[in-house]
């Protein structure tokens, strides 16, 4: 009975992902065909398939989805494997305890352990509770989703093999995460940021709203009891399937809103805001927070704004989104105090906004045509 429910759940997950994509794909194909005319007695139906707005929407939406899909698959599989095979104890051992080296080591951990941003909050929370210094834990939480190799690869591909955007995203992401981590570490003690002292063993057995829906926020110490390859593969597939649903729905929503914004809003108004060195950054940071797109695919959405928004605003979008968004805020709210979350978000906003302003006013465009 349980197996049947799991199969039904997986089928529902895949259908919920595929139907919107197939619907828009069929619509897009129909738009490429010449207009059809059906003549009936006294009635003539003309299907207007050359509608530029609908065609533009479909093109943008599909281009984001189709280009991002391979990176979603690779990212979710790698993230699932990391969550299963790598424990928090391993991460704690490889990160230096020295203040500077610890922050730098935490910032660079993402290059080795590509953890998705939807899983990073539960992992970072447990690391802090297990004794990792707060400033190192915050740096780890903010930088790992940016330094994820899949994220860097998707950024490189999305921006037409532009290595400068990849370097500036990674470098400024590291610097920003270290600054924010040390700011928060100087303000708070790790014993004062949690709502209550809940036993972590109890949390492990009771899934809360704040855990990632993919379940990847849990350590799988029971894996050691399963010595056969089949059980390991099944667990990886289970993680990947559910995480794909969690990530997939956000990329679909984000792609939809991005395409809608660029086709419904008149271009002159987009350019009016997008070319302003300050307002463009505020708008893109707001989008990053609300869209809550996975860091492995956000570059494809950011790419669609090239030529319409400033380079600084696009860089701010690429750095701010992986650090904090609405879904990660909800995860944080289940364990951390509200005042801590507000100050953390404010620190992230301030640093990312400053980075965007500096990029704009220093004239860096990273090879983008604006």
UniProtKB/TrEMBL annotation:
Keywords attached to this entry: Cell membrane, Membrane, Transmembrane, Transmembrane helix
Presence of keyword Repeat: no
Membrane topology classification: Multi-pass membrane protein
Segments passing through the bilayer: 12-33, 53-79, 100-124, 136-159, 166-188, 247-265, 277-294, 300-320, 340-364
Any one GO CC term of the record: plasma membrane
One protein family per Pfam: ArsP_1
Localisation per UniProt entry: Cell membrane
Major localization listed first in the record, in broad terms: membrane
Similarity annotation: Belongs to the UPF0718 family.
Protein name from the UniProt record: Permease
Biological source species: Clostridium fermenticellae
Species classification: Bacteria, Bacillati, Bacillota, Clostridia, Eubacteriales
